Amino acid sequence: MKYIYHGFVYYNNNVHGNPPLRYLGCAEHKKNGCRGRATIPVNGTVEQLKVTKPHNHPPDQMAEEKESFLKELKKAVRSDAMEGATLKRVYEGVSEAFPTVAFEIPFKSISSSLHRWRKNPWM
Ligand SMILES: [Zn+2]
Predict the structure, then answer these.
(1) Which of 37, 50, 103, 122 is such that its CA lies 20 to 30 A from the CA of 93?
(2) In this structure, how many other beta carbons lie within 10 angstroms of the beta carbon of residue 115?
(3) Distance of CA 106 to the CA centre of its chain
(4) Start and end of every FLYWCH-type domain (predicted)?
(5) Does residue 40 lie within any of the structural domains?
(6) Which of 119, 95, 97 is nearest to 109 (CA)?
(7) Contact 73, 110 (CB under 8 A)
(8) What is the 60 CA–ligand 1 centroid distance (Å)?
């Protein structure tokens, strides 16, 4: 499960404490070595998210839109309607609804993910 708040993307880590808190890590950890961390009450909403360790990079105002773009791409590449369509065509179809994000995430940078998603429907 991913959490997006104020332009930062977090991954669910583990839950502990009483009352239980979800400990989140920054999604940029692998890519940028960001050690940004946050907590969120287990039954809380993202508005209750508290940053406990700062990020080493600025927030990405397009983070949420990027996530929606990737989600739509994933859905499209596996849809029956797109079966047999080239990955490029699937990408172009979804891009029409997300012109700004598509500019930031060009086909070349995402084509291997598209390929993987199509090959591995459980991912
Ligand atoms: Zn970060």
Answers:
(1) 122
(2) 12
(3) 16
(4) 4-57
(5) yes
(6) 95
(7) yes
(8) 10
pLDDT of residue 108: 97
Residue 77 belongs to a domain: yes
| Number of domains within the chain | 2
CA 30 – ligand 1 centroid, Å: 10
| Mean pLDDT, the chain cut into blocks of 10 residues (123 residues total) | 92 90 94 94 92 96 93 95 94 96 96 94 75
- Shared domain for 37 and 74, answered yes or no, is no
DSSP string, 59-77: --TTHHHHHHHHHHHHHHH
| Domain extent at residue 85 | 63-119
Task: Verify that 49 and 74 share a domain, yes or no.
Answer: no
What distance in angstroms lies between residue 64's CA and the mean position of ligand 1's atoms?
Answer: 15
